Amino acid sequence: MSLFENEMLTVDVGSRLRELRTERGKSMRALARESGLSTNALSMIERGRTSPSVSTLNKISGALEIPITAFFR
Fold first, then answer.
1. CB under 8 Å to 54, separation ≥6 — which residues?
2. Which has the minimum average pLDDT: 8-12, 28-32, 45-49?
């Protein structure tokens, strides 16, 4: 396994989403409203039950006013 593949396996978008959302003082409901996604979809992502598409991450990053790359730091 290459270093790049190993890094990809350790990315936890759900935890990062929760961290970014709470840092900005946004409730799940507010983020859902602002991103156009359902609270259920956001909850599933935060709990690691589903992996978001790039388009979904784009909607979330727009609502949080952050670059999409912030999910991968």
1. 68
2. 8-12
Percent of the chain with pLDDT over 90: 79
Cα 3 to Cα 49: distance, rounded to the nearest angstrom: 25
Q: What is the Cβ-side half-sphere exposure of residue 34, based on CA atoms within 13 angstroms?
A: 15
Average pLDDT, the chain: 89
Rounded to two decimals, the pTM is 0.83
SS3 letters for the chain? CCHHHHHHHHCCHHHHHHHHHHHCCCCHHHHHHHHCCCHHHHHHHHCCCCCCCHHHHHHHHHHHCCCHHHHHC
